[in-house]
Amino acid sequence: MSQNNIRTVLEGNPVVPVVKIQSLDEVVPLVTALQENNINCIEITLRTDCAIDALKLAKECSNDSFSVGVGTVVNTKQLAQVIEADVDFIVLPGLNDELVDALKDVSIPFLPGVVTPSEMMQCLSLGWDTLKFFPANIAGGLSALKTYSQVFSQIKFCPTGGISKGNYPEYLALDNVISVGGSWIQKDLNL
C-alpha cells in the first residue's frame, strides 16, 4: 500500500538530514561529507532562493546510491519545479486539495505531512500509509506516536521537528517510526 516506494527510500535511510542551503557553495562540501559519513540522502528545503539550483547541484555531485530529496513543498508550482529538477523524493509539511490531486499523478516517492488523526485517515483513504509527522516536538512527540501506533497500526512515520542527536534513537526505537528527519546532522559535520 505504500505510495510510490517512499518506504524503500526511508528504510535505507533511518536518519534524513534536513538542510536549508543559503549558498550553492555549501552543496558539494555537504554532500561529500554526508557520503563520507555513510549518510546516503539529503532533504533540501525550499526555504531559500537557491534551493532549486542546490537540488540540481546535489544530484550532479552525488553518487548513484545517494538520494536527493526536497522538503517544504507547499504548492503545485513548487511541485512542478522539483519534478523538473529530477529529485529522488519529495517531502510536504502538510496537504491541501490541490496538492492531493497533483500527487496522484506523481511517480517520484513522496512523504505527505500530517499531525492530526483526521489527516492520517485522509491519507489512508488515498492509499498513503507512510507519513511525515510534523512538527513532532509540539504535536506530542513520542507519546503521540505511541498512541497512533495503537490506532493506525498500518502507518509508518518519519517524524521531524524537534528531533535531535539526543532524542532520535528513542524515536527510531518505536515500531511505527521508519526514519527521522533532523537538522542537527549538518551542524555535527561542522559545515
Give a written overview of the molecule.
- 38% of the residues lie in helices and 17% in strands.
- The protein has one domain (3-188): TIM Barrel (Alpha-Beta Barrel).
- The chain has 191 residues and is of the alpha/beta class.
- Helix 2 packs across helix 3 (51-61).
- It has 9 helices and 9 strands.
- Strands 5-4-3-2-1-9 form a 6-stranded parallel β-sheet.
- It starts with 5 loop residues before the first helix and ends with a helix.
- Helix 2 links the parallel strand 1 and strand 2.
Largest sheet composition: 6 strands, parallel
Question: In total, how many domains does the architecture comprise?
Answer: 1
Number of helices: 9
Low-confidence residue ranges: none
Q: Compute the average pLDDT.
A: 95
What order do the strands of the largest sheet run in, or round the barrel if closed? Answer: 5-4-3-2-1-9
Radius of gyration: 16 Å
Counted beta strands: 9
The CATH topology comes to TIM Barrel
Q: Strand fraction band? A: 15-25%
Termini separation:
38 Å
The shape, in one word, is globular
- Helix percent reads 25-40%
